[in-house]
Amino acid sequence: MSEPHGGNVMKFPKCLDFSANLNPLGMPQSVRQAILESVDLWEYYPDPECLSLRKAIARHTDVPYGGIVCGNGADDLIWRIVQALRPKQTLIAVPTFSEYRRALESVGCAVESFSLLPENGFILPETFLSALHPGLDLVILCHPNNPTGQLIPQKLLHEIARICEQNGIYLLIDACFLDLTVHPGALPHSPHTIVLNAFTKTYVMPGLRLGYAIFGENELAESVSQTGQYWSVSTPAQIAGCAALRETAYLEQSRAVIAEERHFLMEALQKLSPCVIPSQANFILFQARTGLFHSMLEEHIHIRSCENFEGLDGTWYRIAVRPHDENERLIDAFRRCL
Questions:
Q1: Alpha-carbon distances, residue 211 vs 145, 202, 266, 282 (angstroms)
Q2: DSSP 8-state assignment for residue 150
Q3: Are 287 and 272 in contact (CB under 8 A)?
Q4: Cα-based distances in Å from 125 to 7, 117, 154, 291
Q5: How far apart are CA 149 and CA 1, in angstroms?
Q6: How many whole angstroms separate alpha carbon 283 and alpha carbon 16?
Q7: Beta strand segments in 63-169, E
Q8: Rounded Cα–Cα distance for residues 220 and 192 (Å)
Q9: DSSP string, 168-209
Q10: Residue 67 — φ and ψ, nearest 5°?
């Protein structure tokens, strides 16, 4: 059975990790320094309202801080949003991140799946609009999508938000990888739209667990803030988040490096794989023979088997975009294994 998620370095300690979609530049030095300098504060309880962090996010995103809720990673917020809304019927486009379904099923929600097709590059089509019906309580979309790396066409995303608002359907947009794309575009804003983001992938702090959600309704934000544990975000995570938001040059450099290295990996993979999906994110989905996951482990490289994604099988794999020397080692190993 495949791992439910990537990034399990404890299980594969001697492997290069291409299974977790983290920024190849690593955690910014200023963030490391801010965490180390905050150690004396760890003797006290963290701010349960994350006020300084929420105000910093508000300045960064140009939204009122009253509509922002911080959590113990994006995953924590997915579960808390579902607990607050308690939807009866939800629509998701698959393949996509598995935690949506797990959270929804925990409250007895019926989940409708809209299948994305490999022959269309797994791009969300306009026919998705016909799947939006008044009986839905919630629609969840990942933008760019994990594991396909595809952005939702800008016009279509805004039309989905409009129809959801018109029909009283909440729209949750998971934008955790959006900051690492070259042309992210503007996200829709409406009372029924929720935007989910995290510091995990962009600023490489998965061990700290820090995410946030932006709500179009302050009442829903307040409801979500009351779910989950009281001290949901640790002091070092809050301090790291404030420091990370000041790293504008780091973010620009990250996008440039990812675009260049993604191009290198795509070109190399296209010579080895029958199907490589043209990603716009910091990871790539491709198809190859079954058993490649274990063959790569023998090469001391950990890639993500995608067989546990709805709509994919054991011939699909995902790799993160890593620094160039690691990407070269990956391609060399692929040549031996494929």
A1: 17, 11, 30, 18
A2: P
A3: no
A4: 31, 9, 12, 32
A5: 24
A6: 15
A7: 68-71, 89-94, 110-115, 138-142
A8: 9
A9: T-EEEEE-TTGGGSS---PPP--TTEEEEEESHHHHT-TTT-
A10: -100, 15
Q: Cα dihedral sign for 202, 118, 332, 289?
A: positive
Tens digit of pLDDT per residue, the chain (338 long)? Answer: 456 676 777 788 889 999 999 999 999 999 999 999 999 999 999 999 999 999 999 999 999 999 999 999 999 999 999 999 999 999 999 999 999 999 999 999 999 999 999 999 999 999 999 999 999 999 999 999 999 999 999 999 999 999 999 999 999 999 999 999 998 889 999 999 999 999 999 999 999 999 999 999 999 999 999 998 999 999 999 999 999 999 999 999 999 999 999 999 999 999 999 999 999 999 999 999 999 999 999 999 999 999 999 999 999 999 999 999 999 999 999 999 99
| pTM of the predicted model as reported, rounded to 2 decimal places | 0.96
Q: Sort strands 193-198 and 170-174 into parallel, antiparallel or unpaired.
A: parallel
Token reading at 11: 């299980």
